[in-house]
Design goal:
Keywords: Copper, Electron transport, Membrane, Metal-binding, Respiratory chain, Translocase, Transmembrane, Transmembrane helix, Transport. The chain is an alpha+beta fold. The chain has helices at 2-27, 41-69, 82-113, 129-158, 270-275, 277-299, 336-345, 349-358; strands at 167-175, 178-183, 217-219, 222-225, 229-236, 241-245, 250-254, 260-264, 312-316, 328-334. The protein is built from eight helices and ten strands. Strand 6 (241-245) and strand 7 (250-254) form a beta hairpin. The chain is elongated and about 100 Å long. Bound molecules: copper (II) ion. Copper (II) ion (CU) is lined by residues 174, 241, 316, 318, 320, 324, 327.
Length: 402
Amino acid sequence: MTSLLVIIVLVLLSVALWQLTKIFDLTQVGANADNSQVANDNDNYVQGYLMFGFLTFIYVFTIFGLFKWSHLILGTPASAHGAQVDNLMNITWVLIFTVQAITQVLLHYFAFKYRGKKDQKALYFADNDKLEFVWSVIPAVVLAGLILYGLYAWTNIMFVNEKEEDVMVVELYAQQFKWTARYSGEDDVLGKANVRYIEGVNTLGVDLADPNAQDDKVVSELHLPKGRKILFKMRSQDVLHSAYMPHFRAQMNCVPGMVTQFAFEPIYTTAEMREMDFMQEKVAKINELRAKKSAELVAKGETALDPYTFDYLLLCNKICGASHYNMQMKIVVDTPEDFKKWLAEKPTLIEEVKTANAAPAPAEGAPASKDTAAKPMDTAKTAKVSAPAAAKPAPTKAVAVK
Ligand SMILES: [Cu+2]
């Protein structure tokens, strides 16, 4: 609402300014009977000062924006590499602001200084090698520096030595419109998976006959231990998705038919992040807005909103369909002990399949949902997929999630 008012005030101000210049013109009617459409010295003078007016507008709006909205930035990164990403971002911002501040002043000042004057002709010259050399080399050197630093940061963040580093492998499985996670278990190797094995509770198509799949655990809420590097392996069932974990400065596309990866080490537990000053301020601000909205809702006889508490999130950052906006999964960063306890309580996928098989089959004619129905499954023979046309084993091999 306030922003709308600000925009209205700005529009009205410019209309007033325009009207003033018209009145100013009218007062000149008697003194100057020049009604020609060609700009005279007076017109050029007005245009020259308007350039300064526009310059002031750009700067005032930029400074206003920085003060008004800078609290919306993400704040302290929650991953070990996060500071590097923020540093790169800050350097880029400083460069952009400096260059913009200098070039805009020059552009508008020269437009004013060399405004049209009667009997003055602009000097024409075709080129100036020295000048062109300077304005080509300086940006080239600065950009090359920025790109090299970016590449250095990228390789630093993306390079994972799976054999030497103590990494925990977790799969993120994307589908319209939800996320599912799979822990690789004690062996830190994910069992093979293929879309053809999707059946009943095995919604990720894990090859249950694969020895590496025996200790895999599938969950719908992601828990991570603080201080350990997590290597995420991403897959997508249908379209292009993007696993985006803003607080950890992590993002990677999830592409159907291939496995992509991203690794990071969480450095603050959810509880620690909630305790941070900037986060408490943020949460207080959100809850202030919620309280206002709740009062409106209650006045209308509707239920009030719940107060907000901070949680890390895994979001989808590719517009992947109608419910894309709601494709998210809560991430909880625990202490290593709490994480161990939480994971130990979760059943393995094999156990889940066995439980589903033991449950009585739904009565004939009962409405059974395709992905949640507990269909009986032979865990020992799941590798043998019943292809509709042939009795032979399925021609496609399970994809090793490496
Ligand atoms: Cu998506």
